[in-house]
Design a protein that fits this description.
two-stranded antiparallel ribbon; alpha+beta; elongated; 7 strands; about 200 residues
């Protein structure tokens, strides 16, 4: 088999190009930083302690679950923070739920409960749930609780008692009919002592 001249040239030039590509150019200088502004000294007290365990220093613990399967023993994110779990919920339309009913239904089996209805959040909780929100998800539970309340309401979480509540955001105000009555403090007459009585 005889090579054609074009392939002969290619068989010589190709290895030369590969060798030329492997040659390295001179190293480039690293970018120079500006001189750092000296920071004022900070007094370190004994109250400062390193965090233990350091999540970045330790290797993840795994257990051999099967011949070729290793399983992490760390808890999942939703187990650490139940409000971050992904939900896909359908609220039965036959219930004709209020926002409070829907929030309670969504919080079932999450470990959290809805706070008591007060004069302020009662404005929200007594409203009928919009039909478009009868089905939510897949989304995080925390997000669903915010979506059902709407933009005027801030979600508040008490992780100690595992209670969720909503409060009115800054810039919004309750309707005048929903405001609690203003109580004017009554002045109690103070007894006068030590005067002279005239007869």
């Amino acid at each position: 088999m005889k090579f054609q001249p074009r392939y002969k040239t290619l068989s010589v030039v190709l290895p030369l190009l590969l060798l030329a590509g492997c040659c390295s150019s001179p190293p480039q200088k690293l970018q120079q930083r500006e001189a750092a502004v000296p920071t004022p000294s900070v007094a370190v007290t004994r109250n400062v302690q390193t965090v233990a365990p350091d999540e970045y220093a330790r290797t993840p613990e795994v257990v051999r679950y099967d011949r070729y399967l290793l399983v992490s023993t760390d808890p999942m994110a939703a187990q650490r923070d139940p409000l971050s779990q992904i939900i896909d919920i359908r609220i039965p339309s036959s219930l004709h739920p209020t926002v409070a009913d829907a929030l309670r239904y969504t919080l079932k089996q999450s470990g959290y409960s809805l706070c008591a209805t007060g004069p302020a959040n009662g404005v929200l909780y007594r409203q009928p749930l919009p039909a478009v929100q009868y089905q939510l998800g897949p989304m995080r539970l925390r997000t669903a609780l915010q979506v059902m309340a709407g933009p005027a309401w801030q979600l508040e979480v008490d992780d100690v008692q595992r209670v969720v509540c909503h409060s009115l955001r800054d810039g919004y105000q309750l309707p005048a009919s929903q405001l609690p009555p203003v109580q004017v403090p009554r002045k109690v007459p103070t007894p006068v002592t030590g005067g002279f009585l005239k007869k």
